Amino acid sequence: MQTSRARLFKEYKEVQREKAADPDIQLVCDDSNIFKWTALIKGPSETPYEGGVFQLAFSVPEQYPLQPPQVRFLTKIFHPNVHFKTGEICLDILKNAWSPAWTLQSVCRAIIALMAHPEPDSPLNCDSGTLFKAIFCALGTSEAINLWRECILGLLPHQRKVDLCRLSIRW
Amino acid sequence: MNHPEATTDTSSSSTSSNGNPCPICLGPFLEESYLDTCFHKFCYKCIVQWTKVVAKKHFPSTSVKCPLCKRENFSIIYGYDGSSFQRHYLTQNSEHRSFFSREHKYRLQCYYTEPGVLKDIINVSRYWKSGKYLQQNRWLLNWLRRDLQALMQEEEVDIIVHHILGVIDSFLGRTNQIHHKGLPETKQEEFKELVSNAARPFLAAKTDRFVQELEMFLASGFNIGAYDEVYLQRLGWNTTRSTSEDTEGETNEHTSVVPYLYIFDEDSDETD
Predict the structure, then answer these.
(1) Of B16, B23, B272, the CB nearest to A101
(2) List of residues 6+ apart from B193 with CB closer than 8 A
(3) pTM of the predicted model as reported, rounded to 2 decimal places
């Protein structure tokens, strides 16, 4: 459909023009297909994802912007609201709360915000959700963040995770 | 072209070259339209398409949340030309308004046809010359109610009906009292102006046509059923029986083959 193409082209021009505006997001359109985009986003500071760069894949439907784009993580990420295997993201604005006023750029910003503030109550990664809650219920904030970082980086042995979840039930 | 100043607010493209584009298509505004509560601006086509998407999901919907601020809105204001505007009520997306019958639909469509359909049948100037206008028209109340409901697409129009009736009554009262020897043309002008002024706050751009139709109905001396019959015949929309004499009457769904114009379905581009 022509409207989606025209709108994506406007976004493309905006991205080119505003490249320096948001150093945390780098949006790139596929060379041959304007409906396929990838983004590199920086892990938000003061979170365990800080220092990491995460790749997202956008697949834009023809009805865009009346329909939301499909977005998933290509980079493996341990996060309560991201499916560990598929990279699927559970985020309301990508589903029911979508508004045509969102852009690919602002969707990236929303995903960065989700990385900083997980929603453990609607997990796609149940282990991660449980663990996140376990860690943050059981421990003081700074200790929890460190432990959470270890979880995410895959440094925490499996047995330790299981113990943590058990402990949280007892606490 | 690089803009050195980085935008600090979150609304994207606020620094774009063409000022503030439509938030939906990101292009310049085509047929500027506003939502009635928050007054955020969109292209007419863009926002109507969005309301249709919303209507499909939440059926039946009478409101839409603004894509920008999420406030609830009930109509789209468009076609503002400095003095008047048009309104697209979101209920129009669903055909399930209880009060809005086929008859209302037909009348609304009449207002989008060329004026003067009945000119050669109904002699308006004789109506004024003969002084026939001094007689009460007992169908007027129902006719007013129906046409106002159709035009405004609102059920509750009684206040406006009685306002217009009051204006007409006082005009007739005055004319009767003074036994004014004015020319019928002056009377006609006065009448039309009075009704226009009374109706304009509610009908805006549709006022003039409404007054024409009202005059035509009064001059015809027909009741509503007969008037509709003639009207439909003239437009070539005639069917065996498409309107009932009673305004409250239900029309038979299966007998109608009226080639309706579907004024509001102009962009049903569901194809990809």
Answers:
(1) B23
(2) none
(3) 0.56
| Separate counts of helices (H) and strands (E) for chain B | 8, 6
pLDDT, tens only, B95-108: 445 677 888 888 88
- Determine the longest span between alpha carbons in chain A, in angstroms: 58
Nearest CB partner across the interface for B25, out of A6, A99, A109: A6
CB B179 within 8 A of CB B137: no
Band (B90; pLDDT cuts 50, 70, 90): confident
Handedness of CA A115, A118, A123, A127 (dihedral sign): positive
**Nearest Cα residue to B62 out of B155, B151, B201, B148:** B155
Place of tokens 């996060």: A79
Cα A81 to Cα A89: distance, rounded to the nearest angstrom: 6
**Torsion sign across C-alpha atoms B147, B152, B155, B161:** negative
Strand, helix or coil for residue A50: coil
Q: By C-alpha distance, which of A164, A73, A61 is closest to A115?
A: A73
CA distance B167 to A77: 73
Backbone angles phi, psi at B63, to 5 degrees: -145, 165
Nearest of B181, B183, B171 to residue B134 by alpha carbon: B171
Domains annotated on chain B, with CATH: 4-98 (3.30.40.10), 109-242+254-271 (no CATH)
Interface mutation vs chain B, best among A14, A15, A35, A105, most B CBs within 10 Å: A14
Per-residue pLDDT tens over the stretch B211-257: 999 999 999 888 999 998 888 888 877 554 444 444 344 444 443 44
Q: How far apart are CA B30 and CA B10, in angstroms?
A: 24
